[in-house]
Structures are given as C-alpha cells and as structure tokens.
Write a structure and sequence with these properties.
Length: about 400
C-alpha cells in the first residue's frame, strides 16, 4: 500500500537550507530561511525565554494534559498582546502547533462554516499557504500584491481583485512584515481594505507571524486591531516562533472574532473540536514560556528590550544595504530595501541573477529573490551589495 505513494514537491526554502549547509566555500552567506540571526550568525535563545524556562523547571509540579484549547493564561496573554483591547464577548481562541497550525485550523474552521469557500491570497505569499490549501483541496485565487516596478504594493490591483471576493469567502492578509516581499499596506490602505471587506461580506484571516519585527510590537498589530474593531467576523493566526525566538517549540494561536454570545461559543467549540481531531491537546511548553513572560513585568520588559534590539539590528542592516547600493549603483533604485519591513525583502531579480549571486559570491537567496535581512551583518552587507551589482540586478 505504501508503495503507492508519490513523491511530493519539496519545500524550496528548506532545500536551500540543505544546499547551503553542503557548500564548503569560506565566507558563504545564508539569506534563505526566515530565522533571525544575530551579527555572529547565531539564533539565540532570548534572555527572558531562558529565565522563564528556569522558572517553569523550578515551579512546575505536573505535566498532565491541559485542555483542548490550551491554557487560559496563554490565550489571555496572547489576546492582550495582539489585540490590546480584548472584546471578550466576541473572542474565541485555541492554542495551536505554531502559526502554521493556526493557519491550518483556521482554514479548516472556515470550510466547516462555508463548504463553498474560496480563499483569496496575495501574489506572492508564503509558499506554505498555497501548499496547505492545495493539500486541503481548498479553492483559492491570488490577488495582485507586489508591484515589480516600485517593489511596493500594487494597491489598485489588490483592491480590484479582493473586491471580487464573495460573501463568506476568506481573504488571507499578512498582518505586518509581508513574507516574501517586505512590502506592506499603510494604515490608510488598511481602512480601504476594510471598506471592501465590509461591502462584500468576505471574511479576513490575518496571518501575524512577525509582530515586533517591523515597526514595533504595538505598531505591527495596529492593522490587525483595526480590522478586529471594524468587522463582524475575523480570523487571526498568530505565531510566537519569531518574536519569542521559540521556533522549534511550535507555539501559535488561532483567534476568531464573531458576533457575541452564541456565535462565539459555537466558534470556541468548533475550534476545540478541530484541535481534538488533529492532535488533541496543543503543545504547552512554548505557550507556558510566553504566558510566563507576558504576565511578569520584569520578564516582559526584558523580552521587549531584546525584541527591540533584534528589530533595530534589522533596520540598521536595511539602511546600510540601501546606502551601499545607492553608492555602487549611483541611483536610488534600491531605496525600497530601507522602506520594506520585517525579515524579508524581495529584490525583484530573475532566477538567473539569483543563481549568479549564489555561484559567484556564495550568497544564498530564495529563488524568487527574497533575502533574509537578518542573515547579514555589517561585514557581509558590502559583499551582498557588490554581488547584486555584479549580477546586473
Ligand atoms: N506565516 C508566515 C507568513 C510565516 O512566514 C511563518 C513562518 O515561519 C508562519 C506563518 C508560521 O510560523 P510557525 O509555524 O513556525 O509558527
Ligand atoms: O518563510 C520562511 O523562511 C519562514 C520559515 O516550510 C519557514 O517562514 C520556511 C519554510 C517552511 C516553514 C517555515
């Protein structure tokens, strides 16, 4: 029976990671997978995470099951971090296996509620969005997003395309720090998106995987909060992988905002049911680290400080790269790198140019010319800038 299995398409980003590991060249630079690295190339365990783990080790007296939805401490702390003003009467939530688990459960929930659903997703988007929907046999269409001339958002195209969404379709939006482009909507543009969603009756699902990596912890959640306040139904899939640096702990949350009372309880029940069908109880260790940090003022402040250091390091690298390229190219055509936010920027280069950069300079970017800014440091920025110019980008 198992011999009937067919080969599956590999994940290109993870393949690139393997290819990088196998490269024996000195001075190779990994700008592939979206993991934060400090200037020494290390993905550190954050100070507050270490402290929280120590406290958990000292104080935890049982590892018995929690509940299908995860602990209230984690869910409440995350609701406050993401939404600030939490509409308790409208909010349902479950802890999930990372942000990916939240996306999967959110799409399952949406399909349970509307079997005729189409999902509208940005072009381009995180490849796993597409692969999950293909696997689920969920119809989707892509809305225009990236303007390859300006390397900003093609907002007119986006508006025209999402206006075609039908009532009870899902429109999947990146809450901040768009992956893979780095190009983001302004708050004024979010207002316009909300107007369209309100008119069409399509339901937003916000993927929030980089809160704190763009303009700050609150600023990055501003759009999500605005959507949550403005529309009757919202799905939010949030990840703690990046902003707490707990990638392998698999810590995420699915939140839904509904009408109050009965609708909320129905959503809560369906979400707990979905957890049970997939893995029963969600993982607890990462969630407990997060709730321990967020509920303790000293740990919370230390974590916020370190997250700010991470964010400012990436902003500094963006500025350095943009200015290096301004000098080398004698033009401002790479200034978009300083305007982009989050871990990624899409250069808008051809696959051949990306290959040339890899072959000749041992700098690894994803094939669509996405680069992970955090893979750079002050010394490798000039190497990349020179490689970009030499490849004719
Ligand atoms: N959404 C986007 C856009 C991402 O880039 C990621 C990345 O890692 C995730 C969701 C999910 O992250 P995780 O499942 O590691 O929490
Ligand atoms: O886009 C990225 O690089 C991150 C990490 O299957 C990632 O989101 C990449 C591929 C994958 C899971 C996570």
């Amino acid at each position: 029976m198992l011999s009937n299995l067919k080969p599956q398409d590999p994940d290109k980003i993870l393949m690139l990671m393997e290819e990088f590991k196998a490269d024996t060249r000195q001075g190779k630079v990994d700008l592939g997978v979206g993991v934060y690295k400090d200037p020494q190339g290390v993905t550190p365990v954050m100070r507050a995470v270490k402290a929280a783990e120590k406290r958990i080790w000292e104080e935890q007296t049982t590892k018995a099951y929690t509940s299908l939805a995860g602990t209230p401490e984690y869910r409440d702390a995350m609701a406050r971090m993401v939404l600030a003003d939490v509409p308790q009467d409208r909010l349902a939530s479950v802890a999930t296996v990372g942000g990916t688990g939240a996306i999967r459960q959110g799409l399952e929930l949406a399909r349970m509620a509307n079997p005729d659903l189409t999902v509208h997703v940005s072009d381009p988007t995180w490849p796993n969005h597409l692969s999950i929907m293909r696997f689920m046999d969920l119809p989707f269409v892509q809305y225009r997003y990236f303007d390859s001339d300006t390397r900003g958002v093609d907002f007119e195209g986006l508006k025209d395309d999402i206006a075609k969404a039908k009532r009870d379709d899902i429109v999947l939006l990146h809450g901040c720090c768009h992956n893979p482009t780095g190009a983001n909507l302004t708050l004024d543009q979010w207002h316009e998106v909300i107007e369209i969603l309100d008119r069409t009756g399509a339901v937003p699902m916000i993927d929030l995987a980089y809160q704190g990596f763009g303009d700050g912890l609150d600023a990055d959640a501003e759009a999500t909060r605005l959507v949550a306040r403005s529309l009757p139904q919202v799905l939010i899939a949030a990840s703690c992988s990046k902003n707490f640096g707990i990638y392998r702990e698999r810590t995420g949350i699915l939140m839904t905002l509904t009408g109050d009372g009965g609708a909320r309880d129905m959503a809560q029940g369906a979400m707990a049911f979905l957890n049970r069908q997939t893995y029963s109880f969600p993982p607890d260790h990462g969630a407990r680290i997060v709730s321990t940090i967020l509920s303790d003022e000293a740990l919370r402040n230390d974590w916020k400080d370190e997250l700010e250091e991470v964010r400012n390091t990436m902003l500094g690298l963006r500025d350095q790269l943009a200015s290096e390229l301004r000098e080398l190219s004698g033009s401002d055509r790479f200034d978009f790198i300083a305007r982009h936010r989050g871990m990624f920027s899409r250069l808008g280069a051809t696959p051949e140019q990306v290959q040339k950069v890899k072959d000749e300079s041992a700098v690894y970017m994803v094939g669509d010319s996405r680069l992970n800014i955090a893979g750079l440091n002050r010394d490798t920025v000039p190497v990349l800038a020179r490689a970009i110019i030499d490849a004719g980008i």
